[in-house]
Design a protein that fits this description.
Distance between the termini: 27 Å
CATH architecture of the largest domain: Sandwich
Number of domains: 2
Largest sheet: 8 strands, mixed
CATH topology of the largest domain: Immunoglobulin-like
Strand order of the largest sheet: 7-8-4-3-18-17-13-14
Shape: globular
Length: about 290
Amino acid sequence: MNKIFVLNKITVFLLLICLLSCKPDLDFKISGYTQKVIVEGYIVNGEYPKVSLSLNVPLSGQLDTNYIQKYIISNAKVTVSDNINSQAVGAKTEILTSTWNTSRFPPHSYYGTELIGEEGKIYYLTVSYGGYTMNAKTSIPFKTSIKEIVAAPTNEYLRNLYVKVEIDSLQKNSFLVYTRMKRDRYYKQSPILNSDFTLVGENTFLIDPNRGKNDPSFSEGGYFRKGDLVDIQFCTIDSTSTLFFKELSIFSSNAGIGSELFLGEKEALKSNISYPGFGIWCGKATSHYSYIIP
């Protein structure tokens, strides 16, 4: 199963939700902030669900990995079902397994091993922790495939990369594109495509490799290099997930912190997690491609 680094960045955004020091107590409030359970969960077609949980992190301490790990929740009960009544006859329901893996961040997640995501289905998430029960639902849309991948030269060595997609306006879906060069370790996310749900028919999108400073390909900026093998994941997400990621991106940008930090709850993002949870439970219909830049 492919791992996408940007998902881990979103975990960091959501972890850094509190601007003032507070104790990890779900009922504790200070200056309008409330300790919450931060949920970052995904279910993808053909894959098992994965959920990460934490308490929001106060900024009074040093924000390194060891500090953040103190707020990770590893003893919750996390259940995923394809029926709102998880006990109903015929329902596929699984309690996810709590697993530590210190080679990645966040170093703890809850993984499924039985229930596999299917296109066109709704999935229900239940998180039980600290005497609270948090619920969410998401759908995995039917996937939209890339019709054509096009590389346009900018000079002898560098290329712009475009994808052509046929958009059905009756489906209120948007798209996330993740790319990874063979020499880079992680997938990186381009901006959300069709986030206003206004596009119809065939559309062509420029793909931003969105490299980080530690990527071997960082010096190439927003371009792809001739001869590179690029792995592409094209993900269709529903309207609820779209609104959350769109508002998260806008808030981060308006706060002057780019895509690296999420610093608060001053504006209500459209989280689909019930109180006292916050974050996202997101279904993705994903198509995979490999493309050598000509």
